[in-house]
Design goal:
The chain is of the alpha/beta class. It has helices spanning about 20-35, 65-75, 85-95, 170-175, 195-205, 260-270; strands spanning about 5-10, 40, 100-105, 110-120, 125-130, 150-155, 155-160, 180-185, 210-215, 225, 240-245, 250-260.
Length: about 300
Amino acid sequence: MAAMNIALVQKRAVPNDKDRNLALAVRYISEAGGMGADLVLFPEMWSHGYAPPFDGAFDDPMNPAFEKERKAWLESAVAVESDYVTAIREAAARQGIGVCATFLAASEEGVQNAAVIIDRRGNILLNYAKVHTCDFSLEKLLRPGREFKVCDFEGVQLGVMICYDREFPESARILMLKGAEIILVPNACDMNPPRMNQLGTRAFENMVGVAMANYPGAGWGGSCAFSPVAFDEDGHWRDHLMVRAGDVQEDILPASFDMDVIRAYRERETWGNAWRKPASYADLVSTEVKPPFVRNG
């Protein structure tokens, strides 16, 4: 594949309404197919619009006054074998397009924040559960994933990191070490300059393409794509931001990654896994947490 064309869905979802969000997903898959995209990327937990199931759920998810609502929300999770995911797989096959679909997932591990990558024939290539759950907020109710995964999409190696995963450099680094060439980032949070810089940095330091889809809203939005190619062949700096949406803009944005250019850059430049010193990195896998980073709970 000479170019990988990704459609970034920056659209509003209906809070905690799986059926309506499924209908919207099928519509946007069709629209992205009409744009000639190879794959369409949705924001985080599209099935539920990443919406709180009760008042104050983000700040106090364990509030005993909302046990009924909390239980109902967790029970609304969908399995990979569900009608919900099957309908998205069928839409992908009808349109001949890949999909990175996101949902509140019921799994053997428990309820998780998940994303699947589906190929043009409707087959699931990758099933990923968010590793860095927001345990200080609503995702305290969920089970984190255990590993980062990469799959082959028509010769392009794709990985996924979901929202808060983005804020840990290890997420993208492990995906790069596993062979990822492009990292897909379903997102659901305000997208400010520090977070935008994180995405650009992850692309630069790992020599991977990065594509992020976020929900629209004041201070949110900003769906974007970064090329890893931050320098030309003569060593001159270049802007590697490929596309960026406004915050309240509702759109499906195309981002085209030139795989030949990216692969040539990865072969010649000094980042990624070219000159690392892993023997010096033992502290990275230490489980000890020292002040000031100790948190209750």
